[in-house]
């Protein structure tokens, strides 16, 4: 049933609600005109945009980016709907990792499996992850309700080979409907938590809730979001993707999908390596010594 629009109604980047993300009246017709998915493409490295870049060189586009002015936006400007900020942010903060979150209720009688692109890792010791949920506790999605109730979840990384099934789990199904059955994905038991991992996932994390933080809109005073901070207590990596030291996952096997704006996903196949500069080593150069001065106001 339609309600007021701003972000308390936009429960997360995958929900449907009243926000129209699909810009195509007939999506399948548009999709039919596009090239087929290239399964043969492999993860590979290229050179940087300007391999001969030198300290002090600035951007590598010859100054072209400096020819454009910027538009300043007040997120709380009068008449600006909160949904505009949502669309702006998800189209500008890209690519975003997708946490495919598995939860269950306290009784174990209902499960939930849903993708959230407000997801990231923020620490490694202990392993800590965040998941952002749009909508406060009063409008909590099933995933958040289960997570707060039980304190447990699994976070699964979405790969190319099950993108369509994972996306289908974003469906706005009523509480109690199994996304596992509707998507055809395979639950596999966890070790330290009760929610299942996704068997199709190359990388999965068992997680326990550390704390939550609810956000309030400065403009409306309404509760508009919750961030969940989760400790990773067990990792699961597909055997063919893990190195012997068990500290690296092969990106060409993981082949993760990320979110862009709207209904757009992205592949991760092109990579660039750039060594991090060491200040002491760089200071052996007279040019770097000349550049290494206190910042002036005009710089």
Structure description:
The protein is of the alpha+beta class. Helix content is 17%, strand content 26%. A seven-stranded antiparallel beta sheet has the order 4-3-7-10-11-6-5, with helices on one face. Strands 2-12-13 form a three-stranded antiparallel beta sheet, with no helix packed on it. It has a two-stranded parallel sheet with strand order 1-14. The N and C termini lie far apart (54 Å). Residues 1-17 have low confidence and may be disordered.
Summarize the structure.
The chain is of the alpha+beta class and 299 residues long. The protein contains eight helices and 14 strands. The strands form four sheets. A seven-stranded antiparallel β-sheet has the order 4-3-7-10-11-6-5, with helices on one face. Strands 2-12-13 form a three-stranded antiparallel β-sheet, with no helix packed on it.
Key traits:
disordered N terminus, 299 residues, seven-stranded antiparallel β-sheet, 8 helices, alpha+beta
């Amino acid at each position: 049933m339609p309600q007021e629009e701003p972000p308390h109604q936009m429960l997360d980047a995958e929900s449907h609600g009243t926000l129209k993300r699909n810009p195509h009246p007939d999506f399948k017709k548009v999709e039919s005109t596009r090239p087929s998915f290239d399964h043969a493409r492999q993860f590979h490295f290229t050179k940087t945009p300007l391999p001969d870049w030198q300290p002090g060189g600035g951007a590598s586009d010859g100054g072209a980016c400096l020819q454009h002015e910027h538009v300043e936006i007040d997120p709380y400007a009068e008449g600006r709907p909160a949904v505009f900020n949502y669309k702006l942010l998800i189209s500008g903060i890209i690519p975003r990792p997708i946490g495919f979150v598995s939860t269950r209720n306290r009784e174990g009688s209902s499960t939930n499996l849903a993708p959230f692109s407000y997801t990231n890792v923020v620490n490694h010791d202990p392993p800590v992850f965040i998941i952002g949920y749009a909508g406060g506790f009063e409008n909590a999605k099933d995933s958040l309700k289960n997570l707060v109730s039980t304190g447990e979840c699994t976070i699964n990384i979405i790969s190319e080979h099950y993108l369509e099934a994972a996306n289908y789990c974003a469906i706005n199904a009523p509480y109690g409907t199994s996304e596992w059955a509707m998507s055809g994905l395979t639950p596999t038991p966890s070790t330290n938590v009760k929610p299942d991992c996704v068997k199709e996932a190359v990388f999965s994390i068992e997680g326990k809730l550390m704390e939550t933080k609810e956000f309030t809109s400065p403009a409306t005073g309404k509760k508009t979001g919750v961030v969940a901070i989760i400790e990773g207590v067990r990792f699961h990596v597909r055997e063919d993707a893990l190195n012997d030291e068990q500290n690296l996952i092969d990106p060409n096997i993981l082949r993760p999908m990320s979110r862009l704006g709207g209904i757009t996903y992205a592949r991760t196949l092109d990579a660039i390596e750039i060594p991090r500069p060491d200040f002491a080593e760089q200071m052996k150069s007279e040019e770097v010594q000349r550049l290494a001065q206190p910042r002036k106001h005009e710089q």
